[in-house]
Amino acid sequence: MLTSSMRPQVTSLRQLLWAFALVACVIRPTASHATSNGALRPTVTTTTAAHSSSTSSSSARHWPSLKLHFTLKRSSMQLFGQPEFDVYANPIVSHDGTRVYYDGYVDFVEETARTRYFMVDGVAYATRTELDETGRVVARMTHCLPVSVLPPFEEIMTALNDVTVASTARRNGDKITCAAGHLFEVTFQGLEMEMVICASGAAGLRAYASDIDIEVTFLKYRVKVPVPKVTAGSMGECRRAVKATDMTPVAAALLTGAPVPDSEERGEGSSLPVTLSSTTCTCKSDPRPCLFIHGLGNDYAEDELQDSMPDYWGNLTEHAPCCTEFKYMVWNSVVVGWNNDTQQQIMCDLATSVAKSSSSTKIADTIVVTHSMGGLALAGAIASGKCALANSSSWVAMSAPMSGSMGSDFALEACNGEHTYFMKVIGNLTSQCSMLNATKSLLYQGGEFANKAMNDAYEAAQEAYRDNVFAAMCSNSYAGLFSRYLPVYWLLGSTLPHKTAENDGLVEFNSCTGGLPAEHFGDHYKDRFYRTQLNHADTTFYFGDGLFNSAQKPAKWFECLL
């Protein structure tokens, strides 16, 4: 259930905000300039930020601005296709030097556009600037970002205040060296993530997690952070989401380059070795070919299976250790709904052609991966006896609308002129009016427009789903990973007449579970039944993974699943 008009160019807002949060405080962005080769340079003032020789006497002038250089170890985590980027952060410190938050910014350039993410006075902003071929600005828009997409800063601050000394540290079997500094472990309890910090005083520090390296440099000059001007009429409520936090002496030392307090304050006597988990997973089952079946919104069909479908699915070549090959079914899901008998038979015929061990009606030795209405169509085909899954096959479903979607009910009303102009915009944004044939097949079960035959078909499909699906990904939040169209999902999630606020913008969590017990779902990528904080588009793997939130790693979930 994903239309081309809703296909954003990917990056993750939460990833960027997590990057800010790792400074240990609240960040906000500042202006920056692009050099002739596209490199970004911060705007700075000439006021020197001297390092403090004692955390107890530190004040605002003793807290330096920071440059954080991020290196992302997994391709699914890249931002705007970049495996490395810099975040600049400027501390805002209380008079006694014990409470702090950060302003900060990061810039990304992609072809003819530049996107800048800010945190100013605890408010998150994004500015997108469109450029022509000469580099001249042709359009610019700034809007505030909702609190729901911000990282839990309090958890991060608490973690930095509770660092413990590590005797040694290893990642992927390799020793993390910290010859000239102190080695610490940080555990983000709410995020189920560990990080090792090598603090080298005024020389800076390096932080290591399973999938990320962060090099922190204390800047000689303070970063200048201007307050962005929000574009009139833009979406997003400008709310302050963060505030200054009390810092322990150790945390203050880490963020200023001051000497670390003595071993008694640091609890050195209880130091233990730390081992960071592996950044990759291997196949735990039998490697098999993988068949991908898309959802609503594709306006063309292919008679044969394709080797790629990059306009819908993300690149999983590095994140699918069990897939011996990739095959994609392409069907016209604008004209044809999930409950079309002919289409279900075509789906079965194509699915049984993937592996030689399959029969004409049984799908064998195949990993079947479905998104949205594709999952409902497969369930319908199984329920009607057109084909079946052999025990040697595994069905992995994402965001399946097993009870339909209130978005379809609303689209039907909106396209018939039953809503105000503002509400019609939602239908136009999602292109639902141009695909009413398929949309009508997703009318909400038991709702105003679903008839008895449709309700019965849903029940049969749900039973087939529960009996056959090996793993499922369902979301209870529409905050998701960030793209230029993310405001559409915020609008859909908050204004469509969903039965519950737990939805991905288009499909409710309870609809996606198809009657599977909610308690079977966990919010970690290692959970077979995965309760995520992703919007409906994110679960196509198109937008990769979030940096830190374990409930926002769809690609890693798939990599470690089988």
Please describe what this structure looks like.
With 562 residues, this protein is α/β, with parallel strands linked by helices. It contains 13 helices and 26 strands. The protein folds into two domains: 273 residues, no CATH class; 209 residues, Rossmann fold. The strands form five sheets. Strands 4, 5, 6, 7, 8, 9, 10, 11, 12, 13, 14, 15, 17 and 18 form a 14-stranded mixed sheet that branches. The chain has a six-stranded parallel sheet with strand order 20-19-22-24-25-26, sandwiched between helices. Strands 1-2 form a two-stranded antiparallel sheet. Helix 5 packs across helix 6 and helix 7 packs across helix 8. The protein is globular and about 70 Å long. The N terminus is likely disordered. Keywords: Signal. This is GPI inositol-deacylase.
